[in-house]
Each structure stands twice: as structure tokens, then as C-alpha cells.
Amino acid sequence: MAKIEISGIYKIFGPNPKRYLDAVKKGVSKDNLLAENGHTLGLQDVNLSVEEGELFVIMGLSGSGKSTLIRHINRLIDPTAGVIRIDGENVLNLRQDELIQLRRHKMSMVFQRFALFPHKTVLDNVAYGLTVQGIDRKNARVIASDWLEQVGLQGFGDQHPHKLSGGMQQRVGLARALATNPDILLMDEAFSALDPLIRKEMQDLLMKLQQKLHKTIVFITHDLDEALRLGNRIAILKDGALVQQGDPKTILLKPQTDYVADFVKDVNRGKVLNARHVMSRPVATLSTNTTVAKAREWMMRHGYDYATVLDNTYLKGIVTLNDLQSAPEETIGERVSPVTSVLESAELESLFPQMIGDTSPVAVTTDEGEFLGWVSRSKVVKLVTPAQAFRANETQRDIA
Amino acid sequence: MAFPDILDARALRQGIDGFVDQLVIDYADSLERLSQPLLDFLVFVEQLLRNSPWYLVIAVLATIAWYGSRRWTLSAGVILLMLFIGVIGQWDRGMQTLALMIVSLVMCLTIGIPAGVLMSLSERFRKVLLPILDVMQTMPSFVYLIPVVMLFGLGKVPALIATVVYAVPPLIRLTDLGIRLVDHSIMEAATAFGATKRQKLLGVQLPLALPNIMAGINQTTMMALSMVVVASMIGARGLGQEVLAGINRLEVGRGLLAGLAIVALAIMFDRVTQAYGKRLQYPKQGDK
């Protein structure tokens, strides 16, 4: 069961939204609805499901309805039509007091402009969700100061928020959201108001916390780099409708519409893609305890100039035919030449220095050091050349 | 050319007069009885101020000023202004006026803040109240002084009521405005964390509206002070009475000294409430 399931959500803004629902369902465009009926189409037929523990990014430009969409999840905005299920329960059926309980315990929110309470200290800001629940102030402060430490703001508890920099204010916002220990974290352009360096820092903090906490996070952004960096899955919203959803690689390499293709065109692929994306499987592998004679015979039969040598699943290096000219009774383990290797998660960009001016192969390994394959130079060229971006499907076939 | 007689204005006037007369006959006694606690309160404050030693009154006022502003200069200013009132021989009348101010301010607060809160919460209530506030602020006070005097008789209570009617609208308006001006995203945050309406009002809206409410209190006290002369015409004692006597007897000196004392009180009220309001201001979100 999905943690959050949104199905068939329509949102029309205006004095009489229900009246125009049918027209919208029949396909009246956003512009026509506004011009002829004075109603604004916020969302049209949005369907998505967010799995437990996943970081789901909703991305779109301003006016695409992404902030409207995220506010449907905790019902800061009610839909004109559709169903929103959280843990299988339709939240639209909740009474006001049940809704308040849901907001207090199950989910919390981080805001673009921080939305901290200026009249409360940093510590009381973090404790807000707890005091609203009715936890007494002393205990709430103990919990809050723990969270303040988790976001790296120990010692700032007695300050007022306006004394802090933007990045620090958003750390307070994050701590405030986490303090109630919710299952679901809603982040509305949480890092968009921060400058790039601080934004990266906050992204790292979020990913670090997420590794530990495994919250279900819905993250809104207009920044594709951020979406690709953070998201387990990404949904792209345009004019209130979903145009594509999938994992970051699919979005980048298989854009389904021109709109998405246009979006991903300018992405720095060297940063978003990693070594795994440009890897090719080894064709010839030998074990270290193979004899030289056997290896030589096998390679010549298959027409290989060199072969990968593995010790179980770990890489030893490579041997070429030239290395195998003498001493046929020995094992090839002695004749292996070592090669450089990179982790599969390494940014593509970081491979470039090793590939320029050096033609020796570069191996790709898992974080534990197990061998996966070789960096394919032709794949690197294809993936990072912008001209190739429009022929994304072709590239995709190569990779798979 | 004369405007055609559509309504008989004379009959209309008489109708209104008759209505008010009937009102006086039916309710004057019970209204006077109802207003007795108010009168007792006013008399108590007045006696307290007039019977306390002058230096004690000044010390208390200077202490209040310090708590409001945390600035010694303001306390010193308050001491000087009060000494000035005493030196020009207006101390006792000044205390009578101060008592009227304090009691009418208490009344304005108990009426104005809840009304302002209701106004900010209910669009319908706001629509009803706004024109009433307009009338209260623009109707010449003499017009409602007549029925008020008829109902309550000459004396302190009608003066108090007239003062409150005239002075309370800015407090209502600014309370409403202050609550409405609270940053939308901050309210959204409170809602998102599951705050009830009551928790939002007491924990977020009112504290953040406080600077505006203080501005309203400031306006209200200023307007109340400007009513002292009019109030003295219906029996309120104090500085206004002295100004009125100055006018009646064409004694410029008498009127001027009392007038200066009113100004001194006004400056004191104004600076203390403003300084307190300023201390409550918080920088806006996102400012660095």
C-alpha cells in the first residue's frame, strides 16, 4: 500500500469551482477557463503515489501548481474533486478534529520562506508542534533541543529567528518539522530561497538525516538539478497536470514530451549521471588461478587482446596476450597489471581527468569494492554531448 | 430652488424625540443602576489618585514608563511632565482627568480588543461593524451627548460613555488590521502543525498583532484626551472643566494653563505607549 496516494485530483480556484468541473474534465484549457469563466485551473487529474520511505520530488516551474498540490496532502487546500489517501485512509473524509490530529502526528511541513514564528525563540519554534499537541513546555524543549543539535544548531536555542542567516533559519524549519516525529515530511521549495552553496549544504543535511530516519518525503522544487540530486522518483508538473514521472535517470535520458526534453537539455549531466550509467559489462573475465597456457589458448580462440582478471568478485587487474608469452604452467595471477578503478556512485564529471591523456581502462566497482564493469568511453561521449540529448531514446538503447 | 418636501421633517424629528423620551421613561432608572459599578470604579480610581501623595503618583508613572520602554530618558520625561502639571497648579484637576482617562482606557480595551478580534475572524461581522465605526468617528459628539445625558443624567458616567464611543474605533480597527496583517505563511505553518483556531489566535495572531494593537491603544488614548473638554460640558470634572470655565469667563490664563496640562498628559501617554509598541516590533521574516 502506498503511503500517500493521490488520485484524480482537480482543483479549480474561483467563486464556483464545482460548476466548471465537468467542463475541465472535458478538456477546457486553463486559458479559456480563465478568460471565459474567471476561474483558475490549479490542478487537473493528478494521480500519483508515494511509497513509504521514499523521497518523492514534484518539480515544475512557478505557476505549475506544485505548491497547490503539496498543500492538498495536509489539506491546507481542499480539492474540487478527487481522493487523497494516507495509509489507505481518505483524508477528505476526516472531521476537523481528526484532521488536526493527522497534522499534529503524522505529517509536518517545511516552507520556502521558512515561516518561523518571529516572536518565539529558536528553541520554542522547534518545540511548536509539540506544544500544540499539548506536551508540556519543559519536555517539549528537551525534545526540541535534541533536534536542534541534529541540524547542527546547538547553542542557538535562545536566539530569535531573525538573528539567524537564511540557511540557519531553514535548519530551524527542518528541526521544527522533524520534532514531532512525523511519518511524512512535506517540503515546499524548502531550499529555493537559499544561495547555491547553502542549498547544497542543506541538501546534504537532508540526505544525511534521511539515511537515518527513512521518512516519506514529498519535496517540491523548481530546480531540476536539485530534483535529480535528491529524488528517488520525480514527477514533473506543467499547468497543473503531470507530464511525466519516474526515477531521475529515466527523466533525464527518456523525456516523454518536448517540455521535459527542454527541461533536461541544460542539465549538467556530468554531475547528475554517475559511473554506473557509462559502464559496460566485461566480455572476457578470467579467474586468478587460471594457468597461463589455458588463458592464452582461451583468449586466442575468442579473439580477445586482453581479459579482466577477477579474484572471486574482486578485481585483480587485466592481462594482455603479450603478458602471456612464457611459463605456461604458472597461474596468470602473477602477470596481472593493475588498473585504476572508480566507485559506481562517482560523478561522471570526476572521471574526466582520468580519461584524458590516458588510454588505460578504468574499472567500476561497488562501494564494497566488487567489480562491476568498465567505463565505456563511447558511452561517456554520447551521454555528455548536448547534441545527443535530443536523441535520448537512441542513447538509452546503448546503455541498457 | 427649494427641495420638495417629501418627508415631513418636523414630524420625523418629533417622532425621534418621542422615541427617546419613551426610552428615558422606560430605561433611565435601570440604566443608571446598571452603570453604578462603573461609577464606583471611576470614583475609586479618582480618589486613589487624588489622595495619594503626589511624589508616589509620579514614581509609579515613571516606573510604568520604564517597564514600557526600558529607557531612563522616558521615565525622566514623565517625571518632568508631571512636575510641570503640579507646578502650574493643575495637579488635583489633572488627577481627575487622569482617572477618567484610565477608566475609559480600561473600557476601551475590554470592548475594543474583543471586537477587533471578532472583526478579523468574521467577514460578516466586519461588514456590519465598519459603518458603525464610521458613524462613531464622524458623528459630532454633541449629537449623542443629548440622549446619553437624558438616559444617565449629568455626571461622570455619561462623560465616560461619550469618551469611549469617540475613542474606541481606532483600537477596534487596528486590532483587526494587526491580526489580518500577520504573515500568511506563518499562519499556514501554525495550521500545518495542527494548531486549533484558539491556539492560533492566542499563540500566534495576537502576539504578532501586538505592535498594531499598541498603536491602536495609543490612538485611543489620544482621542480620549481630546474629549476631556466636551466631557466636562456634561459634568466630568478635571482639566476640561477648567478650560470650559476659561471660555465662559473669558479668562485666557485659566484656559491656557489647563490646556497645557492636557497637552502634558497627552505627550506622556503618547510616548509611553509608542515606546512600548516599538519594543514589540519584530523584524519581518527573511530579512537578514
3D structure, described in words:
The complex is a heterodimer of chains A (about 400) and B (about 290). With about 400 residues, chain A is an alpha/beta fold. Chain A has 17 helices and 17 strands. Chain B is an all-alpha fold. In chain B, helix 5 runs antiparallel to helix 6. The interface of A and B includes residues 104, 116, 117, 128 and 161 of A.
Summarize the main sheet of chain B.
none
DSSP, total strands of chain A? 17
Summing up helix and strand content along with how strands pair, one would put the structural category of chain B as mainly alpha
Strand count of chain B = 0
What strand order characterises the main sheet of chain A?
A: 6-7-8-3-9-10
Shape annotation of chain A? elongated
Largest sheet of chain A: 6 strands, mixed
Number of H/I helices of chain A:
17
What is the end-to-end distance of chain B?
Answer: 67 Å
The residue ranges of chain A in which pLDDT falls below 50 over 5 or more consecutive positions are 388-400
What level of helicity do the residues of chain A show? 25-40%
- Percent of residues in beta strands of chain B: under 5%
Instruction: Output the structural class of chain A.
Output: alpha/beta
| Order of helix and strand elements from N to C terminus of chain B | HHHHHHHHHHHHH
Secondary-structure map with pairings?
The complex is a heterodimer of chains A (400) and B (288).
Chain A: E1 4-13, H1 21-25, H2 30-37, E2 40-50, E3 55-59, H3 66-73, E4 81-86, E5 89-90, H4 96-105, E6 107-110, H5 122-126, H6 128-133, H7 137-150, H8 166-179, E7 184-188, H9 196-213, E8 216-221, H10 224-230, E9 233-238, E10 241-246, H11 248-253, H12 258-265, H13 269-272, E11 279-280, E12 285-287, H14 292-302, E13 306-311, E14 314-320, E15 340-343, H15 352-355, E16 362-365, E17 371-375, H16 377-384, H17 392-399
Parallel strand pairs in A: 3-8, 3-9, 6-7, 7-8, 12-13, 15-16
Antiparallel strand pairs in A: 1-2, 1-4, 4-5, 9-10, 11-17, 13-14, 16-17
Helix pairs in contact in A: 7-8
Chain B: H1 9-34, H2 36-51, H3 54-69, H4 72-87, H5 91-121, H6 123-138, H7 141-152, H8 156-180, H9 184-192, H10 197-226, H11 228-232, H12 239-249, H13 252-279
